[in-house]
Design a protein that fits this description.
homodimer, alpha+beta, three-stranded mixed sheet, 27% helix
Chain lengths: 226, 226
């Protein structure tokens, strides 16, 4: 089995400026792939037109594969305190599976986010998949437990109470730390349709600061281990 | 807010044979898009090569958009008892976000699945995002509660206990009904690396058979409302 330690995070000599530039280039590609994922679900074109599109997709993948890592993107950081996790399934800039979620760290201690969940996030007819809500809540809550990336946390337990279905479209979520005892951090959160005050799901999570992460050996800015 | 009822499911006059044929065509496209999502995370090509790939992706999306629905894929069924949910975030044949998961219904009452989770499902460095495990467990458990699609269920509560990180790669999961009282169905499940006997996450869920789904009005074969 895999185990995590402070060595799981890669110190990079890339400047923050070069990382921002790279994120613009690859973020734009990921955005276009998100559009492709979406329309591939909705399309009604004939099989020969599908084949035509498929050949273009393969060509694009071949070009990108000409020089590519085998390894996952991982989590990197530099000496300027910038970190990046481009492959992350919720926030990864390069990952077309990620909506991507962007977090707003409030001065009131509440971490908020709004994001559009389109047809690729469907579960019940016309509604957000309950597991997709679990996915993004898990991430939001882990980041919240990390106290704005000042410490590392891992998920201990997560409990989700499904109140009502959330229609596909814009959703709103928020999370906050409600208790903290030693290395145990409790976070509560909820997600709803952006235009509704009634939560679709209420969640509570227990997050742990691993003992190996309390030795001062963890790079700042790396944040939650979701 | 959205609400669900038996009217959420669309009766189609498409034959099962035509659905199978369509799934082959669009499933192949979704597979190629999955490959594209994966390599877009790993690629190291220069910005001008990225731009070239991006143009191909846009062209593919334009072609597919020439005739496309606005609506999400939804859940359809036909008179032969076949159902399909092509946009589903976990099992959707047309959805490049879905791994997709394929379930094995055991005669022992255990529902099993194995699936490869590549670099697009990353959370902690080199590991499956905890929320991705939650996403696919939620779906697996909901389908399990539906007793091989003989009834409809919705998620009530879901509790996940994170035991250890699961490395990216092949994962194995299983679920079974452990209690049933009235309209409440309890399901327990776990997910682990395919080559490990130690669970990465243990889960328990309470699933509800909605009152509107106990009137015999729900099409058979539709299954869980995840």
């Amino acid at each position: 089995m895999s185990s995590l330690s402070s060595a799981s995070f890669v110190l990079s000599d890339a400047s923050t400026a070069s990382i921002v530039e790279s994120e613009q280039v690859h973020g734009a590609l990921a955005d276009d792939i998100r559009g492709l994922v979406d329309v591939a679900i909705r399309t009604q074109v004939s099989p020969d037109v599908v084949a035509e599109a498929q050949e273009l997709v393969r060509q694009a993948a071949r070009i990108l594969a000409e020089d590519a890592d085998d390894a996952p993107a991982g989590v990197h950081f530099n000496a300027e305190g910038r970190s990046w996790n481009w492959g992350n399934a919720v926030v990864g800039i390069r990952n077309a599976i990620a909506p991507p979620v962007v977090l707003q760290w409030g001065e009131d201690g509440i971490v908020r986010s709004e994001v559009d969940l389109g047809v690729a996030y469907e579960g019940p007819p016309g509604c957000v998949h309950g597991g997709v809500s679990a996915l993004i809540l898990d991430h939001l809550m882990g980041e919240t437990a990390s106290a704005a990336h000042t410490r590392l946390t891992v998920t201990g337990t997560l409990t989700l109470r499904y109140e009502q279905p959330i229609p596909l479209g814009r959703v709103r979520m928020q999370a906050q730390i409600t208790e903290e005892v030693g290395r145990k951090v409790t976070v509560t959160a909820q997600i709803s349709a952006a235009n509704s005050d009634e939560p679709g799901i209420k969640a509570q999570g227990l997050f742990i600061i691993p003992s190996w992460a309390t030795q001062g050996s963890v790079p700042s800015g790396v944040g939650s281990l979701d």
